[in-house]
Specification:
The chain is α+β, with helices and mostly antiparallel strands. It folds into four domains: 80 residues, DNA polymerase beta, N-terminal domain-like (DNA polymerase, domain 1, Orthogonal Bundle); 61 residues, Orthogonal Bundle (DNA polymerase, domain 1); 106 residues, Beta Polymerase, domain 2 (2-Layer Sandwich), CATH 3.30.460; 56 residues, Beta Polymerase, domain 3, CATH 3.30.210.10. It is 46% helix and 11% strand. It contains 17 helices and nine strands. The strands form three sheets. A five-stranded mixed beta sheet has the order 2-4-7-6-5, with helices on both faces. A hairpin with a 3-residue loop joins strand 5 and strand 6. One of its GO terms (biological process) is double-strand break repair via nonhomologous end joining. GO terms for molecular function: DNA binding; DNA-directed DNA polymerase activity; metal ion binding. Belongs to the DNA polymerase type-X family. It catalyses: DNA(n) + a 2'-deoxyribonucleoside 5'-triphosphate = DNA(n+1) + diphosphate. Its cofactor is Mg(2+).
């Protein structure tokens, strides 16, 4: 779905005074040639109004999830997704009401944001003590909305409170949550691109030395060229691992061998989850001063590999747009392939470029996604 539902992911950016969002939506004059838009300089982009609206609704959706209000969370998420992929600039709530996912209530909120650049109810929710407590507790890997709500009900409202309760024996955490709490502050810090290149070099060196038959790609925002990342997403396969040769990965042989190598090298520090196709864990570069980082490794069949790299590279908005295009063509696109519903027919694609071509879409390099 569009966005990963993180509260505080930039909702309310570009609040450059009353009417800033409306000016952006109506198409402000472009910046001079060669100018670099400053953070929050939304007026430089005529579609910035759409993105501001999507950011605000995405944050509202995340907060509703924290409050366990699934109905409202879904409504905000649907509105954010629709706005991110809408090809036209939204200049009013009345215009937006013609879009799927935008009802009368969302249309009213759109008018408010376009007029003021912000949403008052979001400003108030950001001050809500329960919301702040839920966000703090959910930053611990393995603690979801329900568990966080139970902890808040016990008046545990911060990581310090949680650590004290665990030490006193008043709260029991499972193994995954214990690791998540141990490294919570480190996981919350973004990974600079320079450090990501070091992770890439470490992974590539081990892959080339110990697993030359493994094909590997770091995906996510790193592959899109972003300045920093939240975690490390790795996709692996081998050319022999196909639908006709599933025994190549019998018992998760490929990923288990690969993870064993990373662990033996001292790169992997702790395991959060481990299956035959996916590993979730903690890694750290073997150099002084480096933090513990979250890493996910997925192993897919070779005939699914390019669909996987496309999906896990993102962006979320592009994934939604391509999936909707597939539906328009009577097909279904996922991280596993491009299929025709009701049949076993699969569209064979040997590269990401061929996936774009199959959908009739112009190819986008990762840094343009």
């Amino acid at each position: 779905g569009a966005g990963r539902g993180r509260a505080g992911k930039g909702g309310g950016r570009g609040g450059g005074g009353k009417g800033a969002a409306k000016a952006a939506a109506k198409g402000a004059a472009p910046a001079p040639a060669g100018a670099v838009a400053a953070p929050g300089d939304e007026a430089a982009d005529p579609k910035a109004g759409n993105q501001l609206l999507a950011d605000i609704f995405e944050e509202m959706g995340a907060i509703m999830k924290l409050k366990r209000d699934r109905f409202r969370a879904r409504a905000y998420d649907n509105a954010a997704a629709a706005l991110r992929i809408h090809p036209e600039v939204i200049a009013s709530g009345a215009q937006a009401k013609h879009m799927d996912g935008i009802g009368a209530g969302m249309a009213r909120r759109i008018d408010v944001v376009l007029e003021t650049g912000e949403l008052e109810e979001l400003k108030e929710l950001r001050k809500d003590h329960d919301v702040l407590a839920l966000r703090a507790l959910r930053s611990v890997h393995g603690i979801g909305a329900v568990r966080a709500g139970e902890l808040v009900a016990k008046d545990i409202r911060s990581l310090a409170d949680l650590r004290a309760a665990v030490a006193a024996g008043n709260v029991r955490l499972d193994a995954t949550q214990t690791i998540g709490l141990r490294y919570a502050e480190e996981f919350a810090k973004r990974i600079p691109r320079a450090e990501m290149f070091e992770h890439q070099a470490t992974l590539q060196a081990l892959q080339q030395d110990k697993h030359p038959n493994v094909i590997m790609q770091i995906c996510g925002s790193f592959r899109r060229g972003k300045a920093d990342c939240g975690d490390i997403d790795v996709l692996i396969t081998t050319k022999k691992f196909t639908a006709d040769n599933l025994k190549e990965n019998a018992g998760g042989a490929i990923i288990r061998s690969f993870v064993h190598t990373l662990r033996e090298a001292g790169y992997l520090i702790a395991d959060l989850a481990f299956g035959n196709s996916k590993y979730m864990g903690v890694c750290r570069l073997n150099k002084e001063g480096y933090l513990h980082r979250r890493i996910d490794i997925r192993c897919v069949r070779y005939d699914q590999y390019h669909f996987g790299t496309l999906y896990f590279t993102g962006s979320a908005a592009l994934s939604v747009r391509l999936r909707m295009k597939a539906i328009d063509l009577g097909m279904r696109l996922s991280e596993y392939g491009l299929t025709c519903p009701g049949t076993d027919d699969r569209v064979l694609c040997n590269s990401e470029r061929e996936i774009f071509e199959a959908l009739g879409e112009p190819y986008l390099e990762p840094h343009d996604r």
